Amino acid sequence: MPSKKSEILDVAIVGGGISGIYAGWRLATADAGASKKLRGRKHASKKLSVQVFEGSDRIGGRLLSAQSAHAAETVCEAGGMRYVSAQTWIRSLIENELKLPRFPQIVDLPQNIAYLRGWQLRGSQTTDASLLPYDLAWAEQQFLAEPKRSPNDLIGWAVAKLLPGVNVLTGEALDKYLQQAEVDGTPLYKHGFWNLLARAMTTEALALAKATIGYDSLGANANAVDMISEYFNFTPDVNYYLLDDGYDAVPWTLQERFVAAGGVVTPNAWLEGFDAATLPDGSQGVTLQFRSGHPSVMARAVVLAMPPRSIRLLAQRGPVLDPQKAPDVQVLLDSVEPIPLYKLFLVYPYAWWSAVGVSEGRSLTDIPVHQCYYWPSGPNGTMLKDGPGIIMAYNDQADVGFWGGLGAAARVARKTGAKARMYPRATANVAAAVNPFTARLRKNWHEHEAPYEMAAEMHRQLVLMHNVQFAPSPIDAAFMDWSADPFGGGVHFWNIGYKSWEVLHQMTQPKPDFPCYVCGEAWSTNQTWVEGALQTAEIMLQKHFGLPKPPWVTEPVAAAAQAAGAR
Ligand SMILES: Cc1cc2nc3c(=O)[nH]c(=O)nc-3n(C[C@H](O)[C@H](O)[C@H](O)COP(=O)(O)OP(=O)(O)OC[C@H]3O[C@@H](n4cnc5c(N)ncnc54)[C@H](O)[C@@H]3O)c2cc1C
Known about the structure:
globular; seven-stranded mixed sheet; binds flavin-adenine dinucleotide; disordered N terminus
């Protein structure tokens, strides 16, 4: 339901990703009379009028759950997939407030494959330097030979050589240490992570660590403070959880609650730009102009719940985005960098990889597949015995360009109306979707079906890394390259030279005297996670809108135990 032209919204939220719909739900359910800051906005009623404008036809943004009609008993995740037991906001939201069903995700198993430099090893063999096709230094070999070590620990070991003692810290203690740390008399935040690693480990060890961590970007030359924080907060005892109905169940449920509380969601509304406006009561407000003829909107405040590339795609005018009027905002916008991410799901008639002893978790390689997850084919993380087999390939950085090349011809064909050769390759014999949520999951899959060439090359690489003589052809395939607009990347990293712990607060209101607020994963200190999107949304809601901390938030158990000296 579009807003009436004459209506002035209390808050217009642009972007229906997790941060936007979460902020909408929190504002629509807030008691405006109880907050001094909100009382100033609201005179008569206690309810705020809040509308979420989303450019695409769905709420969820970089959470993109999808279901193949050939694998109807599971949900695949083409975007964000899991939360972590050590996270505060998203864990509390899912477990305490929304009470959504979830199950633990299996990741690394000793029998799974590590296909490195053309050699097939098993996970359990990757600590034996004599088997590894890498020319490691003697000290690196010795380090790996210690019990309970894995190649990705080499990064932590290298960092601890430059910052002694850092490897035993986590949480706030770690952040405080890193924010004050110096290397060679220069503050740590002015160092690039890769620049530092190069001093403390060989190129060979770094190549091995990146291949076995699964992300090239974890060795990126981003801000050393934030990269080290991300690395050490991934302690081996964290647990990962997937949602039974897919991660999309979170924004979907929030959307339902937002609408039930009187909020309005308007899909297919791409913001073109926004400007300052004087409201009828003389106060400072905002006008929003949309593409494709959607009527313009007036609001007391606008929230941009979107990543930097989306903000750069807006008209660069007005008191916030005009580079002449607000050069300081440009500096803030430049503080983070998008990281390309790509996922492809292949559905097979059966799980042919079980013939070589792998069935759960992930295998790893340095060829462009990079991470190969054996995705649960049944409900709640189970594997169907007689059902389809599903593989999720997941990679970042340069690998994304490799797969992008195989999607380019189909993209051009679609633009010119020519027919491209696409998946699925077989007709599904599965009942049609039964409810609106499942119908949406099916639509998400259909809109991301993979070009034939892309799926065929992925299949070739999977056969290679598993070293099998025969594997059946895939019957369905869907992918997402998150470097495409309006996202510009899957996740973000802080650039060298910025103090993330200060910029994140500044970014929530980039022009202190203008009612434009920003939230989302990009300018958070929990980048790469939904946790970061909720972290900045909460900072914005509590600081600028005066909302109290939600009662359902609880601290992670591991962190509490740690605070009590249990570790
Ligand atoms: C491949 C991949 C794997 C990931 N894995 C995980 C994981 O396992 N766990 C985890 O916690 N996180 C993960 N993440 C990160 C997580 O998905 C993001 O942090 C989170 O979804 C970002 O939410 P957001 O609200 O900040 O932004 P977004 O989700 O990007 O939302 C922005 C919204 O704004 C809309 N928009 C943009 N421009 C306009 C405009 N002009 N007008 C109107 N609307 C507009 C977009 O369409 C979008 O819906 C992953 C991300 C990717 C891509």
